[in-house]
Amino acid sequence: MKRLTILGATGSIGQSTLDIVALHPDRYRIYALTANASDREMERLCRRFNPAFAVMRNDDSAHKLQQAIADLSTEVLSGEAGLTAVAAAAEVDIVVAAIVGSVGLMPTLAAVRAGKRVLLANKESLVMAGALFMDEVRRHNAELLPVDSEHNAIFQCLPAGSIGSGIAGKGVRKIVLTGSGGPFRDLDLEAFDDVTPEQACAHPNWDMGPKISVDSATMMNKGLELIEACWLFDVDHHDVEILLHRQSIIHSMVSYNDGSVIAQLGNPDMRTPIANALAWPERIESGVEPLNLLQVSQLDFTLADDLRYPCLALARQAWQQGGDSMAVLNAANEVAVANFLDRKIRFTEIPGLINEVMERTSTGSAADLAAILDADASARRLASELVKARV
Ligand code: NDP
Ligand code: MG
Known about the structure:
The protein contains 16 helices and eleven strands. The protein has helices at residues 12-23, 39-49, 59-68, 79-88, 105-113, 123-139, 149-157, 197-201, 210-218, 220-233, 271-279, 293-296, 310-321, 325-341, 350-360, 369-390; strands at residues 2-7, 28-35, 53-56, 75-78, 94-97, 117-120, 143-146, 172-179, 240-244, 250-256, 261-265. A seven-stranded parallel β-sheet has the order 4-3-2-1-5-6-7, with helices on both faces. The structure holds NADPH dihydro-nicotinamide-adenine-dinucleotide phosphate and magnesium ion. Magnesium ion (MG) is lined by residues 148-150, 225. Residues 8-14, 35-38, 57, 98-100, 103, 121-124, 148, 206, 208-209, 211-212, 270 line the site of NADPH dihydro-nicotinamide-adenine-dinucleotide phosphate.
C-alpha cells in the first residue's frame, strides 16, 4: 500500500490522479490533499477519500473547511507551512506535484528533499529552478518521474535511468517534442488581437486548467516544456526538436542513431502518464479508452511557425541565457496570462510583455534559492507595473 500526498488535488491533474487512485484501493491510500481556496471541492474530496490531512493555502478557506468537516477525522492545515509539511511527511511514499505555477516550487522541493517518489506535473518549478532542483533530486535520492505527457512519453522511449543522466553513449540522435499547436493553430493571424479567454481555454484535444490552456494557445507551454526536457533529461536545446502534431496521439518520440524512432502513443488523456508514473515500473489500469488507430487513421506533422508562436523563441532565449532568466520568463508569463484571463491585456500583448520584462530585468546566476525567488519577485513586480501602465 502506497500513501500519497496530492498537491493541487482540486485541479485538473489532481482530479485525474484521484480517478486512478479510486480504481486501485488495494494499492493507494490518500495521506493528504491540498488546494488553495476551493474549500467546497476539498470538502467533497475529504468525504470521499478520507485523508489524514487536508491543506488549504488560503487561511479563510482552511477555516471554512475545518468547520465543514468537523465530523471527519481529517486534520486541516493551512499556508505554505502546511503544504511543505504534508509533502515531506515520513508517512508519505508518493507526492504528486500538481499545483499550478511558481507557488508549487517550495512544496515540491520539500518532497524532493525528503527523498520521495515525486510525480512532477508542476513544470514551472523545474523551469524556474532547474539546476538547483535537479541537484536536490540527486543529493536526496528522490525518484523524479515526469507526468507532463510529452516528458512521460520521452521517459518511456529513452533507456531506463534517463532522468538527469544525459543522452551521451545511449545512441540517441535527438528527442522529438510534439505539440498540438493549441486552439489557434489555424486562426488567421489578423484575428489574434480579438481572441477571448474562453476561446484560448477551449483546447481542441486536452481538458486542462486555465493557465496551461492559455500557455498552450501561445505555445509558451511548449517553450516551458523545452526547458523542462533539458533539465529532466540533462540535454541541450539543440537536442530537442519541436514538431506540431495536431492529433495529439503521439506524445513525443526519441530518434536513435540506428534509424529507429520510438514513440509513445495513446489517447490524449492525462490519466495515462499519471498511471505510468504512479506505478512505474509496473503498468496499471488507468480508465483510459484503448487507442483505436483505425479511427485516428492519420497522423500529421508540421513545424511551428515563429510568427504565430513568438513565445517559443522567448523560452529558447531564456534557456540560452541561463541563470535566473528562466525564472524571469516564467514569472512574466504567469503575470501576463493572469492578466489576459482577467481581460486586462489582449492575447497578442502576452509575448511583448514577457519580452519587455526579460529585456529590462538584469539577469544573474541562479546559484541559490534566494536568487531565484528574488528574480521571480522582481520580474513579477515589473510585469504588473507594465500592465498597470497599459490599462
Ligand atoms: P488547475 O488550475 O486545474 O489546478 C491547480 C491546482 O493548484 C488546484 O488544486 C489549485 O487549488 C491549486 N493552486 C492554485 N493556486 C495555488 C496557490 N497559490 N497555492 C496553493 N495551491 C494552489 O491546474 P492543472 O491541473 O491544469 O495544472 C497543474 C500543473 O500541472 C501545472 O503546473 C500545469 O502546467 C501542469 N500540467 C497540467 C496538465 C493538464 O492536463 N492539466 C498537463 C501537463 C502539465 P484551488 O482549486 O483551490 O485553486
Ligand atoms: Mg505537456
